[in-house]
Every structure is written in structure tokens, then in C-alpha cells.
Amino acid sequence: MAIHETATLTAATLNPDTPWQGRRYFPISQYFRRHFGGRTAKISISIAESCPNRSANSQLEPCIFCDEWGSAAYHLEKDRELLDQIRFNKELVTRRRKSQHYLVYFQSYTNTLDKVKILRQRFETALSEPYVEGLVVGTRPDCLPERILPLLDEMSQRTYVLMEIGAQSFFNDQLEFLKRGHSAESNIEAILKLKQRTGVDIGVHLIFGMPSDSPQRLIETALIINQLPVSNVKLHNLHVLENTTLAEMYRNNTFQPDELNAYADKVILFLRHLSPTVAVQRLAAVASRWDELIAPKWTGQKMQPIEYIENKMRQAGYLQGDCYDPQRQPAMTIPALISNALQQPSSSN
Q: For the chain, what percent of residues have pLDDT higher than 90?
């Protein structure tokens, strides 16, 4: 049985003609609308300066897909003060969509590496803006030290807090291929620790498109997510940017990114086995720095991949969760770790 709270909504109760207001999967926009009561937008900011793989004293290599900007959406604004970034980027977001609710998204690099005092100041600064109703914090599973948990719990009692965990995969050989520097076990430990010790919402980032992807692994990934206290997932296709190890691999013909059709098939298989109560933040990556994108070119298009995947699901009659079985367990040994962790006394709240 899944350990996160489940809604009464199931794949069996969905009208296939009008699921999620006509969508074929549960989009994060509807998840936020249920929570906040209206359209909600993220204000992305870049304030963290590094990650464990890029720090000066690190013995690790950078992740093979990550460029020097560390996933920053507005990398040219990173030299602005935090409050200036929030106000400036809020205007950019407002031009694109009319939202009633805003969350500040600490996006680039790893945002839980600094001292608690500094993190508290950043969170307080973000919440000082009257239109900000919550925080979204991007981090890694191996960057949640004990010292930060009381702060996250405190903030979650005051406002909405979503921790986005860059798990990327639940298979150690894939994490080694990506040069992540953390394990599949640490992914699960981090998620459970956040659940037990804080009141934050939890999201997970996943990467599809590695050479070792297989239908069995995609299904297994969905089964693992279904067993964890995760409210949402964000999907990325492995794509090639300039000044990355992956660019060297691509030019040496040792890596070939998925074309859209192949990637769509992977996403659809994953979604069909994913619980219909888990929201989806994104179906594919969007390369915000088009001049750095090498391949595949479709990654530079924001709407085409989404429309392509949804149309393919619609034509086949597929829905998120139409293969979901709440009694089905993952095959790998990681569930034993989940069970052991759950038996430990919770110190949250």
C-alpha cells in the first residue's frame, strides 16, 4: 500500500473523455489550483552559487548534463540581489500569464548548502513580498543535513514549502552514468527524512533518455514513486548542452539523445503506471538557453513536446494511472529500506 495519503480520485473513477479538465495526466497547475484556489506561478531565482559536484574542494566530476549555470532559468539575472530578482522575474512571469498566487522557486544549483542563518534570511526575504505565498526549494538528496531540517519544518508551519529533490533515477548504474555522486538509496532516505521530520511537500525530478532505459525500469520507477510520500514529479529528457561532458560524448558518438517519439513512449509508459494522485510538473525539459542546445532540437520548443505526448495518449486512449495498481510493489530491494525507515520513530512536528 502506498505510504502517502491518497485522494479518492483513481484511474477507475476518471471519465476518459474529461479527465483533469480534458488533460490526459494530472498537471501541477491543477494541483496548485486545488491547494491555493487559483492559478499559481513560480518565480524562478538564482541565488545558490554551487553544488557538491562543482564546489572548490570537491573530488567529484560535474554531472554530465549540467552546464555552468546549474539549471538556472534566468541565469543573466543571477548577479541581482535576491529581492531584485524576485521583483524583476515576477514581472516576466506576469507578462506570460495572469496568476493570482506566486511561489518563489530557488532553482539553480543546490539551495541547501549554506548556513542555516543565510538560508533563513533568504526565505524571509522571499516571504516579505506580499504576493508570495510559498517557497519551492531545489536541492539534492545528499544535501539535506540535520541542521536544516528544523528550519524547513518551521517554514512549512508558516507557509507552503515544496522541496524538489533531484533524484534523477532510482538505479545506481544510471546515477553513476550521470556522475551524480549520490545513490538510489540516498534518494529514498532523503524523501523519507523530509516526510518524517518536516511538514514540507515533496517533489522528485527524474531523467529519461539514458542508454540503459528499459520498459521494465520505467515501470519500476513509477512503482517506486507510488510507494513514497511524493506529491509530484518533474520529468526531463536527457539533452545535450554546450560545455558539458555529454557534449563530448555526443560528438564522440557515445551518446545519442532520444527523438521525440521515443521519448514520448517512455513518458507514456511511466505515466500509465503512475498513481493518478501524483501531479506532474513537466513532461519534458525545455532548454532556456537555445544557443547552448546541441541536441535534440525539439528540447528548445516548450509546447510541442507536451502537445505531442498528450495527443499520442489521447489517440491511444491512455490516461495517467490507467495501469495503476495500489497493491503492486516494486521488484527491487529498495522497498526494504523504505520499510526499515518507516519503522523508526518520527521526530517531525
A: 66
Burial of 167 (0-12, 13-18, 19+ CB in 10 A): buried
Domain boundaries, the chain: 11-342
C-alpha span between 11 and 112 (Å, rounded):
36
Q: Show Cβ contacts of residue 150 under 8 Å, excluding neighbours closer than 6 positions.
A: none
Cα 22 to Cα 27, 30, 97: the distances in Å are: 11, 12, 20
> How many CB atoms within 10 Å of residue 251?
11
Write the DSSP symbol of residue 258: P
Summarize pLDDT for 56-84 with one digit per residue, the tens: 565 667 789 887 544 544 445 556 899 99
**β-sheet bridge partners, residue 44:** 105
Start-to-end CA distance of the chain, whole Å, equals: 24
Note the pTM of the prediction, 2 decimals. Answer: 0.88
Tell me the HSE value of 8 on the side-chain side, using a 13 A CA sphere. 0
Indicate if the alpha-carbon torsion angle 256, 245, 280, 93 is positive or negative: negative
Q: Which cell numbers hold the place of 13?
A: 473513477
Cα 6–Cα 11–Cα 17 angle in degrees, nearest 5:
135
CATH of domain 11-342: 3.20.20.70
